[in-house]
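Risk register update: the risk of archive-format incompatibility is retired. Evidence:
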Amino acid sequence: MKYREIKAALEEYNDRFYRVVLAKENVSLYELGVILGTALGCEFEHMFMFRSGKDKFCDPAWIDRDNEYSYYDKKLEDLDRNFIFSYDTGDGWDFECRISDETFEMDTDKIAILEEGKGQGIWEDNKFNLMRYLDGEIDPDTDEEDEENGIYFPWNYDIERFSDFDTDFDLKFEQEDFAECVEDNLYSLKEARDEVSGFLPDNDDDNNINIMSAYDSAFDIVCEYIASYQIMTDDEVQTMFDDLKDEIGEENAMRKLISVVKDELSEYIDNNEMLKKHSFFTKMFDIDDEDYN
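Archived output:
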């Protein structure tokens, strides 16, 4: 099987956080995104995309310009040798990538092989603090969070101090199940797309949300705003959702939660261009107050 070597390095600190992988030469860009995301340690709670020259490759739902293309329809060969892989554009994880000129013949059919790495991984929703650490603003020996100064540990990694990010990369351990993890993530993401498609308008099959769970994303937004308006605590929200889900089903349970802070959430969606484009979110806000209040 023929492979290409790809190095992805954090734009700001490419010598402290990077991965090198071998990917099948014929992978789609969507598959490549899952390969790189898995290697870089993300949880796929957010979108990813590629920028190559003047072109952008992303989920079909985000396409609104002539030079933007679906990453399902394009392959590795459609990228320039140098390109940018972006994850969670809100948090701003941009990785400078380079594809090797030569191909490698490997006696395996794995979708990808992890070759090298440095740096712990993507700190979900917390690049700000990682950058403060890498910039020298946070002491490497900081071993507790400091809410007053906005210092928080990552939720997706168990660390004792900030310097854990630079712990030696355990390549042998990371290599063991890497290809299987990629395949598992591809499967889970497909299930999430299939789940979301059930709530989209007819003939709108391309309007899919590429996250590990569409409900997880919507639920997080609901919890955040319910908590911010001090209507209920997170635990109360979860309990309410679980009880309602058993009684009236998952979709209606989500609608009920949204109805609690409908005006505030609607304003948030209206001010968020990316979310507003998704019929999943707009349909969830098509609520009959008499039925759900």
